[in-house]
């Protein structure tokens, strides 16, 4: 004989072998895209941007949150041939805002700049070597 009992916040269900032999009559409910407890990705099922996504790292809030949202929205909805090429002004405004708050939005330090310049130089040298080899 199956039964159920409550212990504090927990509900304990005892089921018999016969209970498991009968097919379930439970119906699955379709996922609710507006369910605040459902983990969503960056883009919601309806195509909107999920500003609460942890993948944004909190960029949508803070002193430059509005500029970030503006730039990111522009890029997301951009239909230009080079995606986002129509969003330069929004990204510039976001960058200018971030420069006002260096403690919250750290800029590249000298080591990062040096290593990226080294990578860029190596890439240019590799391209030149390929072109030279192809022309010979």
TrEMBL record:
Q: Print the keywords alphabetically.
A: Disulfide bond, Mitochondrion, Oxidoreductase, Protein transport, Redox-active center, Translocation, Transport
Taxonomic lineage of this organism? Answer: Eukaryota, Metazoa, Chordata, Craniata, Vertebrata
Mind telling me which residue stretches traverse the membrane in this protein? none
Primary localization: mitochondrion
Put simply, this protein is called MIA40 protein
Query: Which Gene Ontology BP annotations are present?
Result: mitochondrial respiratory chain complex assembly; protein import into mitochondrial intermembrane space
Any one GO CC term of this protein is: mitochondrial intermembrane space
Q: Give the matching InterPro entries.
A: CHCH, CHCHD4
Q: Which PROSITE patterns match?
A: CHCH
